[in-house]
Amino acid sequence: MIWAVAGAALLLLWPAVLNGFPLVFIDTVSFLAQTIVPRMAWDKPMAYGPFLHLGHWQVSLWGAAALQALVLSWLLWLVQRAVLGRITPAAHLLAVGLLAALTALPWFASTLMPDVFAGVTVLSLWLLALGRLSRAEGWAMLALGAFAVAVHLSHLVIAAAVIAGVLLLTWRLRPVLRATAPLAIALVFLLVSNGIGHGRLAISPYGATFALARLQADGPATALLRARCPDAGWYLCGFVDRLPMDSDQFLWDPASPVARDAAGNTRPMGTVLIAAEAAQIVAATLRAYPLEVLRAAAQNLARQLVTFRVGDTLVSDHLDVSARMMVAEGFSARELAAFDAAMQMRGALPAVAEPLLWPQAPVVALSLVIGLWAAISARGTAAQKLFACVLLGILANAAATGALSKPHHRYQARIIWLLPLAAGLLMARRLAGEDSPALPVTRPAEKPRPASSAPARHSP
């Protein structure tokens, strides 16, 4: 098992090898800074940065990428075993190899961002609730699930959707409680870490700023400001003539109302300063324009569902003033030279990657059709339950990102690889003639299997 998991992890890192360095994104700087400076970002949980540090120790970011790939490979091993009842090293390498060749998974496994853990959230909670795990595996999966939920606020929504799916699929309390445990741990972690780091006992201390950015871009919050300003006395009343604007521009543009006041003076940490007012405006908008908000959210969700190209994560935009600065501060000159020499930093990666990415959209479409067809005849099996939870997770991801933030290709590409995985496992069961409903794994009377193929389950 060990060499198969390690070998499959190497398969997941081929985009990093192609690039000459692990892939990064503009936000990678914030996660590296969490332990190197150290500094807690106002908009990012204090979870993924320490995970990266476990891999790199300010020596090489290749260690962090390898750790991430190993975790993913081990998780995929357990998922295959839970669905098929058995797994061999050759089968694991084949399955991961197909995912590495035909889906977005390796691109996110090779990127030093918490994005890939959106899919890990779905798989870990499903395994805890419905998989076959030894006691040690159960505790390890509890830790992984809690971490996966905690690394990104959108994963809270994904976790809630999977828990709802487990409830609908089983109508039993124990599986639901097992799936809920990682979410509960993650919520406690977020409350405590934000209390320590920001002095605010909150899940997202400044999340209202993001909600306002979305609502003003969609129109309802802008309509409210025009109706109530200047009497309301809000800071944004001085900028009604400039609204609505793109939500990313509202949040990050140096000339936006958040970053620069009406007199042209800069407002350091303006996204934090406006959070209290944003909460008032968001609450008032929801009360005044509930149908308009729902309509815009539904449109953004639908758009996000079909927006999942990998390409927008491969560019070099702003890396010189973000990730590169932290590599220069926290790592050796040799590591910085390797970062600078990588194709991504030189702006060459998108063109090189484009011919390699074309199979992904057809594979997703085919997986949806095949998965729905196979799931009909596989009712009651572990594969069918996994497919159902994957669909709910993908839908929840679109809602948490597209409807609450803004549709971006990266947001949906990070989780869409689950669809080919689940559909492939459905077809594997069907081809093996194993579509009969699986026995409940928690019943003592279940017929024992050999320990090497299906360990007894003792989840936390």
Could you tell me how far the N terminus lies from the C terminus, measured between alpha carbons in angstroms?
23 Å
**What is Rg?**
23 Å
The stretches of 5 or more residues where confidence is low (pLDDT under 50) are 436-460
Beta fraction:
under 5%
H-E string: HHHHHHHHHHHHHHHHHHHHHHHH
Helix content: 55-70%
Shape: globular
Number of strands: 0
Mean pLDDT: 92
Instruction: Please give the domain count.
Output: 2
Strands, helices and their partners?
Elements: H1 2-12, H2 14-19, H3 28-36, H4 48-56, H5 61-84, H6 89-102, H7 105-109, H8 117-130, H9 135-150, H10 154-170, H11 173-198, H12 207-218, H13 220-228, H14 247-252, H15 270-273, H16 275-288, H17 290-305, H18 323-330, H19 333-341, H20 349-357, H21 360-376, H22 382-403, H23 409-416, H24 418-431
Helix pairs in contact: 1-5, 1-6, 3-4, 3-18, 4-5, 5-8, 8-9, 8-10, 8-11, 8-22, 9-11, 10-11, 10-22, 12-13, 12-16, 13-16, 17-22, 21-22, 21-24, 22-23, 22-24
In short:
The chain is an all-alpha fold and 460 residues long. It is built from 24 helices and no strands. The chain has two domains: 2-199 and 312-431, no CATH class; 207-305, no CATH class.
Give your account of this protein's structure.
With 460 residues, the chain is mainly α. It folds into 2 domains: 2-199 and 312-431, no CATH class; 207-305, no CATH class. Helices cover 65% and strands 0% of the residues. The protein contains 24 helices and no strands. Helix 9 packs across helix 11 (173-198), helix 12 crosses helix 13 and helix 17 (290-305) crosses helix 22. The two termini are 23 Å apart. Mean pLDDT is 92; it is low at 436-460.
